[in-house]
Automatic annotation (TrEMBL):
<dbReference type="InterPro" id="IPR027417">
    <property type="entry name" value="P-loop_NTPase"/>
</dbReference>
<dbReference type="InterPro" id="IPR009057">
    <property type="entry name" value="Homeodomain-like_sf"/>
</dbReference>
<keyword id="KW-0238">DNA-binding</keyword>
<dbReference type="InterPro" id="IPR025943">
    <property type="entry name" value="Sigma_54_int_dom_ATP-bd_2"/>
</dbReference>
<dbReference type="InterPro" id="IPR029016">
    <property type="entry name" value="GAF-like_dom_sf"/>
</dbReference>
<keyword id="KW-0067">ATP-binding</keyword>
<feature type="domain" description="Sigma-54 factor interaction">
    <location>
        <begin position="187"/>
        <end position="416"/>
    </location>
</feature>
<dbReference type="InterPro" id="IPR058031">
    <property type="entry name" value="AAA_lid_NorR"/>
</dbReference>
<dbReference type="InterPro" id="IPR003593">
    <property type="entry name" value="AAA+_ATPase"/>
</dbReference>
<dbReference type="Pfam" id="PF25601">
    <property type="entry name" value="AAA_lid_14"/>
</dbReference>
<dbReference type="InterPro" id="IPR002078">
    <property type="entry name" value="Sigma_54_int"/>
</dbReference>
<keyword id="KW-0805">Transcription regulation</keyword>
<keyword id="KW-0547">Nucleotide-binding</keyword>
<dbReference type="InterPro" id="IPR025662">
    <property type="entry name" value="Sigma_54_int_dom_ATP-bd_1"/>
</dbReference>
<dbReference type="Pfam" id="PF00158">
    <property type="entry name" value="Sigma54_activat"/>
</dbReference>
<protein>
    <submittedName>
        <fullName>Nitric oxide reductase transcriptional regulator NorR</fullName>
    </submittedName>
</protein>
<dbReference type="InterPro" id="IPR025944">
    <property type="entry name" value="Sigma_54_int_dom_CS"/>
</dbReference>
Length: 504
């Protein structure tokens, strides 16, 4: 065997030390990169017919936000089905899921590629992928050696997933997983505010308390409600959605509580309301602050006594419904202004949750961008959607007043523009694809252009970042020419670009 005992021992130690620490898998693949001499590596978790990245090395950061559905990625599907080490021919015609996602490598047409499926018993739980730019990079490593590494990693990954299950109802604490087959969205994020929100969701989901979810428009309050329901004892029963802002006053009571035939003009049959439909499940009342005071009083009665009365009916019906409410208003201020009932506010806010705005979770922007890129790729039938280094810096420098929803729409619009200008099915998003109505001003306005105060270091970094991006664009992404245009040594430019987040 070409691996030394010391090298294998180092892998084992990396796997077993700080077993619950989120950086453990990152340390592992860095160790593997050194041991195997690969240029890029990734540890992936398998769930719902897709691979979800847990840790990466040598790949663009947005890979952590991408979700690789097996049906869309033949190489990963081959790894999932193989049951053993997979060595892809250097000139394999199967598209590589990381094509365009290894910084400095525009194409992976000829390269070494290994896949190590990871099992717990007979169940596939993940995979290790290893890529090398030299076509013969892994020839010296035997299948027996690689199987040993796969066995070590499989055991560690399985232990980590078991610990996560014991700590919460989630398989992985940094995600609320969706089903790739249904296109369900996920809560993407590794930043401290999101991890804290995840913990609070896990705590309240296990109870049956009503929850008030606050946050700015576009932050993902509905995803929080879905996560609470999915992790609760009511998960097998309905999650019913109602947007209170879209309810005309004339039909609002009927929508909530139902009506009987003949209750009013047009009531030609009995109809169940949202509370009745959600019996034994969860009712999510979005934009709760828009409800009229009269409806607030009737909603309060349901929360207090657990019974409803259909419009036009003298009888009461018992319901068992958990209410999750969301608002972008400050309901305390609404109570003081007399627009929201204080007693209803206190009933709803037994366990309040606040969804952080995107500007408070900067490190999640690129992960979310990668997630939306992969969604667009699948929906539009593209081979790949890649973020250029300049685009990643561009996205990271914006404050996103519209939060995650604005980022999603910006990515979708940019993909449409980039596809229109592309000859094939491979799309690379560049800063100019984020223009407003053809204007040269970007939709992603740099932080230094905003009115709020920044310190001198932030302002200097922002100015340098913008100057480098503009010069790089004008020099067709040629770094040497860009260095000359900026009167910099090319090595110094590369170092500066890395520090500013323009290069990986």
């Amino acid at each position: 065997m070409s691996f030394s005992t010391e090298a294998l021992a180092k892998i084992a130690i990396e796997l077993q030390s700080d077993i619950g620490h989120p950086d453990r898998f990152s340390r592992l693949i860095i160790t593997l990169r050194e041991l195997l001499g690969c240029d890029a590596s990734a540890l992936l978790r398998y769930e719902a017919h897709q691979f979800i990245p847990l840790a990466i090395d040598g790949l663009a950061k947005d890979v952590l936000g991408r979700r690789f559905a097996l049906q869309a990625h033949p190489r990963l599907e081959a790894i999932a089905r193989a049951g053993d080490i997979v060595r892809f021919p250097a000139d394999s015609t199967l598209p590589d899921p990381y094509d365009g996602l290894i910084p400095g490598q525009e194409s992976l047409k000829v390269h070494a590629c290994l896949g190590l499926p990871l099992f717990a018993g007979q169940n596939l739980i993940g995979a290790l992928t290893l890529d090398g730019m030299d076509a013969h990079q892994f020839d010296s490593h035997s299948d027996e050696e690689l199987r040993l590494i796969a066995a070590l990693v499989s055991g560690a990954l399985n232990n980590a997933l078991l610990i996560a299950r014991l700590e919460s109802q989630n398989v992985l604490m940094t995600n609320v997983s969706g089903d790739a087959t249904t296109g369900a969205q996920e809560m993407i994020g590794l930043s401290a505010p999101v991890v804290q929100l995840q913990k609070e969701i896990e705590i309240v989901a296990a109870s049956d308390l009503n929850v008030l979810i606050g946050g700015e428009t576009g932050t993902g309050k509905e995803l929080v409600a879905k996560a609470i329901h999915q992790q609760s004892s009511r998960a097998a029963n309905p999650l019913v959605y109602l947007n209170c802002a879209a309810l005309p006053e004339s039909v609002a009571e009927s929508e909530l509580f139902g009506h009987v035939k003949g209750a009013f003009t047009g009531a030609i049959s009995h109809r169940s309301g949202k509370f009745e439909i959600a019996d034994n499940g969860t009712l999510f009342l979005d934009e709760i602050g828009e409800l009229s005071l009269s409806l607030q009083a009737k909603l309060l009665r349901v929360l207090q006594y657990g019974d409803i009365q259909r419009v036009g009916d003298d009888r009461s019906l018992r319901v068992n419904v958990r209410v999750l409410a969301a608002t972008n208003r400050d309901l305390r201020e609404e109570v003081l202004a007399g627009r929201f009932r204080a007693d209803l506010f206190h009933r709803l806010s037994v366990f309040p949750l606040s969804v952080p705005p995107l500007r408070e979770r900067d490190e999640d922007v690129i992960l979310l961008a990668g997630y939306f890129c992969e969604q667009c790729r699948a929906r539009m039938g593209l081979s790949s959607v890649i973020l250029s280094a300049a685009t990643r810096a561009h996205l990271a420098s914006y404050r996103w007043p519209g939060n995650v929803r604005e980022l999603e729409h910006a990515i979708h619009r940019a993909v449409v523009l980039a596809r229109a200008a592309s000859d094939g099915a491979d799309v690379t998003l560049k800063p100019q694809h984020f223009a407003i109505h053809g204007e040269p001003v970007s939709v992603v306005q740099p932080r230094e252009m905003q009115t709020e105060a920044v310190n001198l270091r932030e302002a200097t970094d922002a100015f340098q970042r913008q100057a480098i991006m503009q010069a790089l664009e004008s020099q067709q992404n040629n770094w040497a020419a860009t260095a000359r245009a900026l009167s910099l040594d090319v090595a110094n430019l590369h170092r500066l670009a890395k520090r500013l987040g323009l290069k990986d």
